[in-house]
Amino acid sequence: MPGKPSNQEEEYFAKLEFDRKRKIEAEKQARMAKEEKHRLQELHHMHCPKCGMNLVTIDYKGIAVDRCSGCEGLWLDYGELAAIMKLEKTGLDRLFTLFKK
Q: Per the structure, how many domains does the chain have?
């Protein structure tokens, strides 16, 4: 006839159960974070940060620049400003040096 489990056994199984529940909760939180990131990307992708209207991609000398259909603002992705600066070595170069590090 098996005896009553010791406190160490109960503690061991309680820890296993706690670890299992913590792992399930962490996976749930990661899944929810991924879904939220995807939802926000769908909501904001190709929308103007200033007015919220749709962005239209235009070609500027081979560089894709996003232009707002509402406020007509121009939005550049990472590296596009440097690429434009290489193309334009005139007065714009002096202006853009203000934005360089």
A: 2
